[in-house]
């Protein structure tokens, strides 16, 4: 299930700048050149930060897709239990600490940017508190895991798969001893605009799971049956690697470990106040996600899987593989932009510069749509060869490929909205408002329920995927309306010319990709039933279509393309 990360907090009214009330004489006296320089500086800062985070996310996402490919090789009998078992640890980590990163930790740590020792004391107070909470929780979960697995995580699995899910989830929950502190340290480095090591650290998580998948494939039943547990121990290995990769960044920022638990620190109360609504949102999201998982493990087989008596593991695995593919552009674009823009938006709010706040947000919208709309089109048109290329080997069958492609298409419709949503959430976080996104989350879940509950038993897994898409489309639309009512016009009309050009180029791109795929499919050499055929189809059809898309947006003079080009060249050392 693809999830956004809503956060909330009390609304703090932002003082309006003089931009809307200046007299004509005051306007004439305003220095125009400095304003232009400020806008240019804003754009360069956003592109620099976003491209660095995106570069790190690219490495992490590539490893993430490789990880899914290795997991797929193990077959649904192992991948299904693994996907089911990993969610409790992820949801609990989101609830306790990870969800607080953008909404509470980064803005608060940013306030202590000029007082390094006080920042260090605050950071490691939270690290130590989180470590204690995770240790106690991991031991407690070990004993309630049997009930939770049979009732919530895998009620539709076969008994053998339920047992494997139980053992997986008991092992994986102990990864929180590293995951929790990692989230706090990551927030501290982001607040200091130390994006490099934090962006690349997440790759270690995927690398650990890949190592575990290889061990499972090689060991199998050997080593007293422990070979099947490679994926679970790979999670532990990966989370330890994340912490290790943060150490250079911590050294750069002089954040040496400190054994301190300062419960009287004034920032703790502020963080709790900011995070309380966010924590509720993650608790609520976790309940919806577990409902989604509960339904998915019991969904009926679709036509291509009719030969099986039970499809719960195959359906849930397909949703997991498709989710990873959606998270690739989501992490590369939406998350990179939202994390890069948050410190700057927070600064503008603190300074009361609402117009630059709006300008930065609108710039983020345009950049997000420039990349997410073609990503949506490409994944929909080339879904079958992409799935075959990444997953169709080992115990992953062609029928499971069709199932995953179906889930991928229904998830892909939400991609442009995810980009807008992440930026809007950052805008509310910058205003120290974490209540509104949570309230909107509750409303958007009604969209999920309206689609999922009536159709999960008849349409099956595709209905659950579409329900999630409806939820993630509603969330940014409602947030956008509320922000417009709160801060005034966001100048969205200025977005329309770029949106029309981007959409037109994306339609042409989709038609070209579809035509090339259809032509190539007539030749056995390009058959998606073979690995090489899938590679060539994706590279030729996808590559030519992508070149045409960027050629068209350049021809249409979409301004953000030149900014993107400048950022890429700067990273390559050519500018």
Automatic annotation (TrEMBL):
The chain crosses the membrane at residues 122-144, 164-185, 197-220, 226-247, 274-296, 316-342, 363-391, 411-429, 436-457, 495-516, 536-556. Residues 1-20 have a biased composition (Polar residues). It is found in: Cell membrane. One of its GO terms (cellular component) is plasma membrane. It is a multi-pass membrane protein. Residues 1-28 are annotated as: Disordered. GO terms for biological process: lipid translocation; peptidoglycan biosynthetic process; regulation of cell shape. The keyword Transmembrane applies. InterPro entries: Lipid_II_flippase_MurJ/MviN, MurJ. Keywords: Cell membrane, Cell shape, Membrane, Peptidoglycan synthesis, Transmembrane, Transmembrane helix. GO terms for molecular function: lipid-linked peptidoglycan transporter activity. This is Putative lipid II flippase MurJ. It comes from Dictyobacter vulcani.
């Amino acid at each position: 299930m693809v999830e956004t990360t809503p956060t909330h907090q009390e609304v703090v009214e932002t003082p309006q700048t003089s931009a809307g009330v200046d007299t004509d004489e005051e306007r004439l006296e305003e220095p125009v050149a400095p304003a232009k320089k400020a806008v240019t500086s804003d754009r360069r800062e956003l592109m620099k930060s976003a491209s660095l985070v995106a570069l790190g996310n690219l490495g992490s996402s590539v490893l993430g897709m490789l990880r899914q490919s290795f997991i797929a090789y193990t077959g649904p009998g192992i991948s299904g239990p693994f996907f089911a078992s990993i969610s409790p640890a992820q949801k609990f980590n989101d609830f306790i600490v990870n969800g607080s990163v953008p909404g509470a930790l980064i803005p608060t740590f940013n306030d202590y940017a000029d007082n390094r020792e006080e920042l260090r004391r605050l950071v490691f107070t939270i690290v130590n508190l989180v470590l204690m909470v995770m240790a106690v929780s991991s031991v407690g979960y070990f004993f309630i895991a049997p009930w939770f697995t049979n009732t919530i995580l895998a009620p539709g699995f076969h008994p053998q798969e339920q047992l494997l899910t139980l053992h997986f989830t008991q092992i994986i929950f102990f990864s929180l001893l590293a995951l929790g502190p990692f989230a706090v340290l990551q927030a501290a480095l982001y607040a200091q605009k130390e994006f490099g090591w934090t962006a690349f650290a997440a790759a270690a998580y995927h690398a650990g799971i890949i190592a575990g998948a290889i061990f499972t494939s090689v060991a199998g039943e050997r080593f007293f049956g422990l070979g099947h547990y490679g994926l679970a121990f790979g999670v532990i290995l990966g989370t330890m690697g994340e912490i290790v990769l943060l150490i250079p960044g911590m050294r750069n920022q002089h954040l040496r470990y400190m054994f301190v638990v300062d419960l009287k620190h004034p920032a703790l109360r502020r963080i709790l106040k900011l995070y309380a609504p966010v924590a509720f949102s993650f608790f609520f999201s976790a309940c919806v996600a577990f409902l989604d998982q509960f339904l998915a493990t019991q969904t009926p087989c679709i036509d291509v899987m009719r030969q099986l008596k039970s499809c719960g593991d195959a359906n849930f695995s397909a949703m997991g593989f498709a989710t990873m593919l959606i998270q690739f552009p989501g992490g590369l674009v939406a998350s990179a932009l939202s994390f890069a823009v948050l410190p700057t938006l927070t600064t503008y709010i603190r300074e009361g510069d609402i117009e630059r706040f709006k300008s930065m947000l609108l710039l983020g919208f345009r950049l997000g749509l420039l990349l997410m709309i073609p990503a949506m089109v490409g994944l929909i048109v080339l879904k079958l060869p992409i799935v075959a290329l990444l997953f169709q080997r080992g115990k992953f069958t062609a029928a499971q490929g069709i199932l995953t492609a179906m889930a991928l298409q229904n998830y892909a419709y939400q991609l442009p909205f995810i980009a807008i949503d992440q930026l809007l959430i950052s805008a509310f976080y910058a205003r120290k408002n974490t209540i509104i996104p949570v309230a909107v989350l509750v409303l958007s879940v009604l969209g999920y329920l309206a689609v999922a509950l009536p159709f999960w038993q008849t349409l099956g897994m595709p209905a659950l995927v579409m329900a999630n898409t409806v939820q993630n489309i509603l969330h940014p639309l409602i947030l956008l309306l509320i922000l417009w009512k709160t801060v005034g016009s966001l100048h969205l009309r200025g977005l329309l010319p770029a949106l029309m050009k981007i959409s037109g180029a994306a339609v042409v791109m989709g038609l070209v990709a579809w035509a090339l795929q259809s032509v190539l499919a007539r030749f056995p050499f390009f058959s998606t039933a073979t690995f090489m055929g899938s590679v060539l189809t994706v590279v030729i059809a996808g590559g030519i279509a992508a070149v045409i898309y960027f050629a068209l947006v350049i021809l249409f003079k979409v301004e953000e393309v030149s900014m993107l080009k400048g950022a890429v060249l700067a990273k390559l050392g050519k500018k």
